[in-house]
């Protein structure tokens, strides 16, 4: 979570057109087949429209508990989007954690910890949010 009192900056970061990646780790019921995850990778239709393509990969499975841990990367931020995407392929989310926002990670933090961004990180986030996605990939 990023806390800021700069509404314009927050809106820029969150707007899907800027394609700032958000990486989540989801524990889901069942063990999604590659074909199911490919639906998410192509974009899946939800009640509020089709999602942009996601990137997914299974990190682990627990056959005994019938669960899987799946990493998913999206750049949109619709309400409960990740949960709804997994629900749409028949694998409800049991637990969800955002691990990365752009280049920011949870490295060095434990549950409940927080830290201030460095001035350099703020500058990089502003650049990330205002640079066209196609230019960032070059």
In terms of topology, how is this protein built?
Layout: H1 7-14, E1 22-29, H2 34-42, E2 45-46, E3 49-50, E4 55-62, E5 67-74, H3 81-88, E6 93-101, E7 104-105, H4 119-130, H5 133-137
Antiparallel strand pairs: 1-5, 1-6, 2-3, 4-5, 6-7
Helix pairs in contact: 1-4
What is the percent of helical residues? Answer: 25-40%
N-to-C CA distance: 28 Å
Radius of gyration: 16 Å
- Identify the CATH homologous superfamily of the largest domain: Alpha-L RNA-binding motif
CATH topology of the largest domain: Alpha-Beta Plaits
Given helix and strand content, the structural type is alpha+beta
Please provide the count of β strands.
7
Estimated share of beta-strand residues: 25-35%
Order of helices and strands: HEHEEEEHEEHH
Number of helices: 5
CATH architecture of the largest domain: 2-Layer Sandwich
Low-confidence sequence ranges? none
Describe the structure.
This protein has 138 residues and is an alpha+beta fold. The chain has 2 domains: 1-18 and 114-138, no CATH class; 21-101, Alpha-Beta Plaits (2-Layer Sandwich). Helix content is 30%, strand content 28%. The chain has 5 helices and 7 strands. The chain has helices at residues 7-14, 34-42, 81-88, 119-130, 133-137, and strands at residues 22-29, 45-46, 49-50, 55-62, 67-74, 93-101, 104-105. The strands form 2 sheets. A 5-stranded antiparallel sheet has the order 4-5-1-6-7. Strands 2-3 form a two-stranded antiparallel ribbon. Helix 1 crosses helix 4. The longest helix is centred in the last third of the chain and has 12 residues, at 119-130. It is globular, with a radius of gyration of 16 Å. The chain starts with 6 loop residues before the first helix and ends with a helix.
